[in-house]
Amino acid sequence: MPQLNPTPWLLIMLTSWLIFTLIVQPKLLSLTPTNTPSNKPTMTANTHPWHWPWT
After folding, report:
1. Over 60: is that where the pLDDT of 5 sits?
2. Which residues cross the membrane (predicted)?
């Protein structure tokens, strides 16, 4: 059965992972994110109880 022969597919898989690891990944990691987090102070939540008119 030719599907169980790993010889051609192992080389293709290793080559694709090598290309991804050495070429594509450094290019993607060098990009700067467009939405950088800011150092805004956190807002305090309003914790006043709500008074329902029917209770």
Report:
1. yes
2. 6-24
